[in-house]
């Protein structure tokens, strides 16, 4: 437990030193004046209403600009937001809150819309709490119009869709390159609408800016893991009869090889700093010792561990990062047991010894880790909480303690 406490201290200390990214960009104010600056890039999941910025690298004081002051802002060639006074329908698609109203319920709002595509027709995105909307603009791009999509209850409580956005796009994107069939089965999905807008803008021979690929995108990493755990086991029997006598046994700390496979899902939020983890690995601890009553005892522990966890990165540069992670592991042993001998009691038939074999049970335990990532390579120091190997036997206590180091390679 002390090892876990020390690592928790380290994990909660690191974020205070984590890098906050201020990337080069610009802000255009209400007077149309463009100011180059450094903007805190938090890769917004929901559309922002304010941003933090610094005038230059020497400026240590963070300033705030809210939506009333920002006409437009951009970070490099990845994120660009433009302010519009527009109508928006905020109806969500949760079954419990659907209405029987087919038409949008419009609200006049001032929004910073995220630019997805720029060209003769611009495409924008707005994400709120539990819903997202797409907007388009044409001409001088001073006004943005929401593409209408709404789910609602029709007769007999059947969920129906208002797909007016298909007609809106068909009318706006008139071209000999499109037919009605191109819009008939079009879903209200980001990439499908982006592809359609880009195809139209390409036919107009205009310069096209596609911001979407440079913005938050989910990603899956597949990693081969190799490592070593430094493990020891302690067993204590408190029953004279049930487990063959009162004794304690401490098996030595020894290195145990680990081989495994990890799937990491990088979440499309917060600059890809968060990910979900699933891994499976194999390890085998085998040892023997003398118990406190001078009887030989051995253990053979083979387990497949299944891990679920969360990871957070602190980026140092484009190639490297420090990370912390934690979660739960379920150890699934097979053909695993402890085995010991005891002298026969006086009332038992014959003389000599009896071999007592106890099967090791599955167990769940927590882990936390601290690591370093460089390109496709990871190294991680991992601490595990103690495992109870015989949890259904209240008179037999055990503790499998381990900490280790893991190396992994992302082969995608």
Largest beta-sheet details: 11 strands, antiparallel
CATH fold annotation of the largest domain? Porin
Helix content: under 10%
How would you describe the shape? elongated
How many helices?
4
What is the CATH architecture term of the largest domain? Beta Barrel
What does this protein structure show overall?
The structure is a single chain. The chain has helices spanning 2-13, 164-172, 181-184, 190-203; strands spanning 22-28, 34-40, 50-54, 63-66, 72-75, 79-89, 106-118, 122-127, 132-137, 145-146, 150-153, 159-162, 209-210, 219-237, 247-266, 274-290, 296-315, 320-333, 337-343, 353-359, 363-374, 377-384, 396-410. Helix content is 9%, strand content 52%. The protein is mainly beta. The protein is built from four helices and 23 strands. The chain has two domains: 77-214, no CATH class; 219-410, Beta Barrel (Porin).
Write the layout of secondary structure elements.
Elements: H1 2-13, E1 22-28, E2 34-40, E3 50-54, E4 63-66, E5 72-75, E6 79-89, E7 106-118, E8 122-127, E9 132-137, E10 145-146, E11 150-153, E12 159-162, H2 164-172, H3 181-184, H4 190-203, E13 209-210, E14 219-237, E15 247-266, E16 274-290, E17 296-315, E18 320-333, E19 337-343, E20 353-359, E21 363-374, E22 377-384, E23 396-410
Task: Summarize the model shown.
With 412 residues, the chain is mainly beta. The chain has helices spanning 2-13, 164-172, 181-184, 190-203; strands at 22-28, 34-40, 50-54, 63-66, 72-75, 79-89, 106-118, 122-127, 132-137, 145-146, 150-153, 159-162, 209-210, 219-237, 247-266, 274-290, 296-315, 320-333, 337-343, 353-359, 363-374, 377-384, 396-410.
């Amino acid at each position: 437990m002390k090892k876990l406490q020390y690592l928790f201290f380290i994990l909660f200390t690191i974020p205070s030193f984590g890098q906050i990214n201020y990337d080069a960009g610009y802000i255009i104010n209400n007077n149309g004046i463009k100011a180059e600056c450094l903007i805190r890039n938090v890769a917004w999941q929901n559309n922002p209403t304010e941003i933090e910025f610094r005038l230059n690298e020497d400026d240590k004081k963070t300033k705030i600009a809210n939506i009333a002051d920002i006409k437009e802002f951009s970070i490099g060639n990845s994120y660009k937001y433009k302010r519009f006074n527009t109508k928006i329908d905020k109806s969500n698609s949760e079954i419990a809150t659907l209405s029987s109203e087919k038409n949008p319920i419009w609200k006049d709002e001032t929004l910073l819309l995220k630019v997805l595509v720029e060209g003769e027709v611009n495409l924008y995105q707005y994400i709120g709490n539990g819903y997202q909307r797409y907007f388009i603009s044409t001409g001088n791009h001073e006004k943005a119009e929401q593409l209408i999509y709404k789910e609602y209850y029709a007769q007999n409580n059947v969920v129906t869709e208002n797909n007016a956005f298909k007609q809106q796009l068909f009318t706006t994107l008139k071209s000999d390159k499109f037919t009605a069939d191109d819009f008939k089965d079009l879903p209200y999905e980001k990439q499908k609408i982006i592809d359609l807008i880009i195809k139209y803008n390409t036919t107009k021979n205009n310069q096209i800016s596609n911001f979407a690929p440079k913005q938050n995108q989910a990603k899956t990493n597949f990693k081969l893991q190799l490592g070593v755990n430094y493990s020891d086991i302690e067993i204590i029997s408190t029953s004279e009869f049930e487990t063959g006598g009162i004794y304690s046994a401490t098996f030595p700390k020894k290195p145990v090889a680990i081989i495994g496979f990890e799937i990491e899902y990088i979440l499309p939020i917060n600059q890809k700093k968060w990910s979900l983890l699933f891994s499976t690995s194999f390890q085998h601890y085998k040892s023997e010792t003398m118990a406190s009553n001078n009887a030989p005892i051995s253990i053979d522990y083979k387990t497949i561990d299944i891990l679920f966890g969360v990871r957070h990165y602190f980026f140092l540069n484009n190639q490297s990062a420090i990370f912390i992670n934690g979660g739960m592991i379920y150890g699934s042993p097979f053909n695993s047991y402890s085995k010991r001998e005891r002298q026969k009691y006086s009332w038992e038939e014959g003389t000599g010894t009896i071999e007592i074999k106890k099967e090791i049970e599955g167990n769940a335990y927590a882990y936390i880790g601290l690591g370093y990532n460089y390109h496709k390579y990871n190294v991680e120091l991992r601490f595990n909480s103690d495992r109870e190997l015989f949890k259904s036997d209240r008179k037999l206590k055990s503790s499998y303690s381990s900490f280790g180091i893991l190396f992994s390679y992302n082969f995608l």
